[in-house]
User: What shape does this take?
Amino acid sequence: MVEGVRQDEIWDAEAAERYDTPGAGVFAPEVVAPMVTRLAELAGGGRALEFAIGTGRVAIPLAERGVPVTGIELSEPMLDRLRAKAAIPVVAGDMATTRVEGRFSLVYLVYNTIGNLLTQDEQVECFRNAARHLEPGGRFVIELGVPELRRLPPGQDALVFGTGDGALGVDTYDTVRQHLVSHHFTFGSGREARLSRCPQRYVWPAELDLMGRLAGFEPESRHADWTGGEFTAESRSHVSVYRLPPAEGARSRAE
Ligand SMILES: C[S@@+](CC[C@H](N)C(=O)[O-])C[C@H]1O[C@@H](n2cnc3c(N)ncnc32)[C@H](O)[C@@H]1O
Assistant: This one.
């Protein structure tokens, strides 16, 4: 049962080994540079904390831009890859509960990773944990796909999300539990195929906003991408910014 697979089993040594694709895919400069520019702007001269920092795809260039970055990450193999590349302070643990010393002006969680928390309670806890780490007026930024349920015809519970280069991606949906499992198939030249699977809890933008409010945030902005593109009914993902009020009282609600 895929749902029973723990995230640290998914993000194992093999996944960590294959994660980095320097200069290509999600590591391409045209993907990373706008993220780093926007995150540096949102940090406003303060410190940043990345939840689920992975191998440092975003954190390393952000630190090189002059923003002090700290990370929380569940997978030791992913952390090993990060440590081999850069001296970024990191704490091993679950982003919904792990505490890091100090206060930050920015916490960010990108690449759909809030979906890796499989219950609504854990996702709300993740917002609360972001709030705990922020100074008054600090921001929590989330990059997340819009659930694609409009593409799912009645009676069908799977959607192809990508093809090409010997790869096939299929999402299977459990619309009652608000879960999907992303299946990534990679084909070799013969009969063999490699499969990796990642269960996620998909979240609607409106639900995300409510989670933010439960943790004491106000929604500040939502765009379709990192360059400020307009978020519309056709947008497939969003970059949402939540902000704590400058007042002290807002912080106590998150504790
Ligand atoms: C798609 S990768 C993203 C890594 C990095 N943020 C990036 O953008 O390249 C997802 C990461 O989330 C981590 N992860 C999953 N669940 C987590 C949790 N509950 N707490 C902390 N990290 C988690 C995985 O170990 C993995 O490194």
About this structure: The chain has two domains: 2-146+204-253, 149-199.
